[in-house]
Predict the 3D structure of the following.
Amino acid sequence: MARDIKIVGVVGLGTMGAGIVEVFAKAGLQVVAVDGTPELADRGRGFLTRSLDRAVSRGKLEAATRDEIVGRVTFADQLTRLSGADLVIEAVPERMEIKNDIFATLDGIIAEDAILASNTSSLSLTEIAAHTRHPSRVIGMHFFNPAPVLALVEVITTLFTDDELSGAIRSLAERLGKQPVVVSDRAGFVANALLITYLARAIRTYETGHVSREDLDNAGKLGIGLPMGPLTLCDLIGLDVIKEVCDVLYNATHDPAAAPPALLTQMVIAGRLGRKTGRGFYTYEKSGSGVVTDAPEPVAIGAAATSIAVVGAGEVAADLVKRLESTGASVTALDDPTRDTSTLAGVPVVMLTGGPHGGADCGHEGDCTCEEDATGAWFSEIATAIDRTAIVVPTDDQCGWIIAEHLESDTPVVPARLHVATRTGQIAEVASGLDTDPSAVSTVDATLRAAGLTTIVARDRAGLVVDALLYPHLNAAVQMLDSGYASATDIDTAMTAGCGYPKGPFAMIDEIGADEVAAGLARMHGETNEQALAPAPLLIEHAVAAKPFLG
Ligand code: CAA
């Protein structure tokens, strides 16, 4: 029999609970919203009215509709007010004893056939259910922050759950305009297991001091194309929540990649929980605000070069030449072995992009001829023509480096990585090594900035920052698929609908190429021997078979 869910109870009116109230009330359901004290219930009312008022002031909602939505919600401070609910969803802090207490109390209040749902982001639903009188009516309904905006609802089933209940909750989520993904009970479910380990990696990267806070965020937002940089997202979610999920993931898997970074633990102890306390990785104008008030972390910015050579052929080289010319700099483009390399003499910054591509297949992109035949000779001619004091910038890890290897040992080399544009911008990463002169790094940084690229300066490590964040994240998605927990489509839905990704991990791998991702991971793994960086066997299989994950 199809369930008729008309009255919904929400327990716990923090950020998530209040957002869930808004979602249900907007979908036309009656809501009884309960928190522990009259003050907390009032705070919940305040969250709801502020969110709806904001929508009215932005012209997204009629004032009359706002009043109707608010009119569907009753705020209360007693669980007994939930006696008439068809479904109660709990969104209280992530502590098993609190949840068990609430569920035990609700067991004695709600009707026998009413459903008990938890918005837990990581605790075991099986354990929550097992502590209740009717475990078969307990289910997970996990929303994503901000709940009114993000479409994902993870529906978590346990060994007690029958298909009728999971089907009813799936239909309810669809009625709310959400995208449900039904999965079994595993630490972190789909989205958090992937997202929180990605965020933990970002925090660990920040902890090293190898990259600034803003550059790290730009790597996620502009480099990968995600809606927010990782540290900004940590502040939105709440560092206490992230730590709780890390703890649950680590306890379940003992995977060092999921362990809470020391800095995260310290920030939680210090009460720097993110936006909600007004301070996390950033400082905000007040608690609950998203307006950052502190200045960007200082980076040394030098003067841009006014004379630059770009050696190489292909789209990247052509784009670079165009960008640099638009700054008014004098640009020497050397894209063909027939060109006279003496034009490089006296040029203070020489950028080496892939190619020139002559047709022989060395395995590099674009049929480059690198050291083979005439081009190899041309490469050493270029190396000889470059001034000993010129800053040489290899922009790929293929041909550019082959030229760089022909240089005199004291020529300053500053590797850079030019990324393709995402919907939010375009990144150039500039690597700084132990021997690199900081002024050479800041000249390259300034030159690429002047050319309209957003730069990231980071220590010279495999994957620099963008790939070092993204590739392990993609690898984790492949491991999850290979473990049989969720399909590639469900994983992609979880990350697009739950975290606002423009495309899911498998769509990303298919676009980048499984071979490229596996090779990048292998380089990172070779450098650190970190287990999470070893390319997943299924990724290697796809790379070898040149077979996409989707479609
Ligand atoms: N409540 C209601 N609506 C909100 C909102 C909120 N708290 N925050 C933003 N919005 C609305 C805005 O009103 C705006 O609506 P319109 O387009 O209709 O005007 C829309 O969302 C976009 O907002 P903004 O223009 O202000 O900003 P944006 O484009 O940068 O989007 C964002 C903001 C939706 C938060 C987006 O950056 C995003 O999706 N970020 C990723 C968030 C994410 O990953 N969440 C998952 C966290 S993990 C989790 O929640 C699970 C867990 O258990 C820990």
User: Anything to note?
Assistant: Residues 307-459 form a domain with the Rossmann fold fold (CATH 3.40.50.720). The chain has a mean pLDDT of 91. The first helix runs from residue 15 to 26.
